[in-house]
Give the backbone structure.
Amino acid sequence: MRFPYFNNQTSVTEFILLGFINIKQGQSFFFILFLTMYTICFLGNSLIITVTLLNQSLHTPMYFFLGNLSFLDICYISVTVPKMLADLQAPSPSISFMGCAAQLYFLVALVGTEGFLLASMALDRYFAICCPLVYTRLMNKYTCLQLATLSWTCGFLNAALHTALTFRLSFCRSNGIGHFFCDIPPLLSISCSDTSANEVTLLTVGVFVGLSPFFFTLVSYAFILHAILSHRQKGQRHKAISTCASHLTVVILFYGSSIFTYVCPTSSYSLEKDQLVGVLYSVLTPTLNPLIYSLRNKEVKVAMKKLMCEGTFSIGI
C-alpha cells in the first residue's frame, strides 16, 4: 500500500499518523471510546496498586506481581492513548521524529516487560499450587524483587536495541505512518533502506522476548492444571481453576496480539489488520487486565471494602 505525504529527502523531521485519516465521520465516537477506556484503565489499575500497598494481607508474591502489572498497564496505555486523543482533535495528526522514537521505545519496552511479568506470575502460581510446602521459601521477597527487576530490565534493553535499529534507517519514500502510533512494522514498511537486518533481529529477539516467556507460561499452567485436577478437592479446585482461567485469558489476549505484530514478517504487513491488533494490545488489554485479574478477585474485593469503610470512617471523624 502506498501512503501520501511523500518526502524526497533521506531524513524526516516529523511523521504523519494516518490511522484516523479514513474515519473522519467517526472521530467523536472514537474519542469518547478511547477516553473511556483510558479512564477505566487508569482508575482500575490505580485502585489495585493502592489496595495492594495499604492492605497487609495482600503483601504476597501474587499481588506484588499484580501491582507491577497494574503500574505497567498505566504506563503502557499512557504511551499511546493521550496522543491518540490529541490526534483525533487535530486537522493533520503528526508526531516529531524524536517523539516517534520515544513513543516506540517505551511501547516496545513495556510490551517486552509485560511478557516477562506474566511468565513470573505463572512461575509464582506454579510454586504455590504444585510446591505448596516450599512455596514461601522459593518465592521469598528477594526472589520476587529479582524476577521483577529482570522483567523490567529485559524489556527496556530489548526496546533500546529495536529503537536504535529502526531509527538508523532512512525514510525517504514517505513520512506517513499507517497507524495510530509509532510502532516497528509500519516504520519498516515506509523505509527506503534495507530492512532485512531489522526483520531478522525482530524475529530472533522476538523468539526470546516473546515466544520463550509465552511457552514457559503455557507449560507452567499445564502443570498447574494437572495438579489441580489430580489433587485438589472440589471447592479448592474451583477456586484454583478460576484464578488460572483469569490469568490465561490475559496471557492469550496479550501474546496473541503482540506475537502477530512483532513476530509476523513485515512483508505480510496490513494496515487494517495491524491497526486492529494495535488497539487490541495497546488499549484493550491494559483496560481489561484489572477487571480480569483483580477486581473480580474475592480477596481484592474484601480489601477494597475495608479500605473504603476506613476512608468513610476517617472522613466522618
Observations:
- The beta strands are 14-17, 94-96, 176-177.
- The chain has ten helices and three strands.
